[in-house]
Design brief:
The complex is a heterodimer.
Chain A lengths: L2 H32 L6 H17 L5 H24 L7 H23 L14 E4 L2 E4 H23 L1 H11 L1 H6 L4 H27 L7 H13 L4 H26 L4 H16 L14
Antiparallel strand pairs in A: 1-2
Helix pairs in contact in A: 1-5, 1-8, 1-9, 1-10, 2-3, 2-4, 2-8, 2-9, 3-8, 5-6, 5-8, 6-8, 9-10, 9-11, 10-11
Chain B lengths: L3 E10 L3 E11 L4 E6 L5 H9 L7 E10 L2 E2 L5 H7 L1 E4 L11 H8 L8 H11 L1 H4 L10 H14 L4 E5 L7 H18 L2 E6 L2 H7 L2 E6 L2 E7 H6 L1 H8 L9 H13 L1
Parallel strand pairs in B: 3-8, 3-9, 6-7, 7-8
Antiparallel strand pairs in B: 1-2, 1-4, 4-5, 9-10
The chains are: A mainly alpha, B alpha/beta.
Chain lengths: ~300, ~260
Amino acid sequence: METGLLFQLVLNGLIVGALYGVVAMSFVLIYKASQVVNFAQGEFMLIGAWACWWLLTYWQLPFWIGFPVALAFMTIFGVVLQVAVLRPLIGEPVISVIMATVGLSIFFQALMKWMFGVFAQPFPAIFPVERIRIMGLEVQSVYLLSIALSLVIMLGFWWFFNFSKHGLAMRATAFDQQVAQSLGISVPQVFAMSWAISAVVSAVAGVVVGVVSGVSSGLSFYGIKVFPAVILGGLDSVVGAMLGGIIVGVLENLAQYVDSQWLNWGNMTNIAPFYALIIILLIKPYGLFGTRNIERV
Amino acid sequence: MSLLAVNNIEVVYNDVILVLRGMSLEVQQGAIVALLGANGAGKSTTLKAISGLLKTEEGRVTRGEVLFGGERIDGVDPHMIVRRGIFQVMEGRRIIADMTVLENLRLGAFTRSDNGVKADIDMVYGYFPRLKERTGLAGYLSGGEQQMLAIGRALMARPKLILMDEPSMGLSPLLVKEVFGIIRRINQELGVTILLVEQNARMALSVASHGYVMEQGKIVLDGTAEELANNEDVKEFYLGGHGAERKSFRDIKSYKRRKRWL
């Protein structure tokens, strides 16, 4: 048994998992605030990554300008999407809203392929790609950067929901929209804000993945991985989403290890999280951290 | 000029259900005004028509006007009405169960951008010392503590007018007394005007300076709290305890007729 490989895989799992977690958090953000299951979360990553790539290659902007511009674009994009597509659907059945987001997902994937082609495009070299050895393990510097960024985003979320006025307002809206309005909170504004933040954070993750492995429509596959992550953690728990993401990341790497060593079934990487998902839902239907309603007796 | 004037409003739910028909009332600056009435008379609807929360329940003011400080506020979105200085403490407290007491209080100050929030949290703790000791989730507070939190949260918005919907609901007589004592103190010490909807007419009239009695979507009686408390009809129908003598059905009917003409 190769323990070295095992450790390496766990580390890879943590790094990828942290990114899943970030996307999962932005998914939960939308779900919590507006009860919309956003199937187009992966496309947010895709659009953000392509927007940044386009600014950097076509306009030759330096990263420190192109990246913020791309994020600014994503902010507007999130708000416009919410106002134009989701707002008219408020009060409609859940299934209609889900269909709309599935439609958005398909539409944006096709649109991105049409605009930028189907081949993976490498990002211009922004950061020196070198390998760093930590405790005998090889890690690419970009990966370290990505995990640091994930941590910063997590901390940001934590601060936002616990200390900022608008984060509290978002939680209040998630709890009870009528109460939120009675406190002077504008619910449409909270919805728009949640979509904007979600789009921006997903785009950051998209750019990170793009920098590491190039931008292609395969990026939106991350969006699919987000489902086991959020359902593992509980649809409405930000912390759960993060942990769910990490669990999924580690799990798929371990599954790959098990597969390559003993099973040789192939493709366990992609399927293992969904097996875990089914098992956890059988045991804990609310997910690991999902809230049950507090009922005072 | 009165702080709040509701002029002859008509409220319709879902475009068909007529709940208020020609409802009018006035609240003077700095007063506590009680709005009494049986279940289904339209008291809560009146409050929601003022605070704009009617909009969240498919209701609409179809006739008449609501004036606050001389400006029309019917049709304004509820979150903007809060910014103008009207805060409704909804029936059943409606605190945010999965937040802490402190977070609930901070949310009350959502519309404010000054930096007096911290001082006001201490002020609220001054009125409700027992809230300070509760560090867990607000959902686990007792009913009385939740009511106190709901009132405290309203104070955090520094409103000019607080609309209170049944603060005594589900509380023990002793707690009702305590809550009403605090309502009176808030009114006197902070100068907040209060419009109070209550089933507990005796308690409400004991703190109010003025009262209105509602029935079937409109006001049937009004006067100073003292007048109302001594009014024979109010005594009979809202305060109870009118001795052992029983009225005949004919007398009750004549009362109903009399009310319709008011």
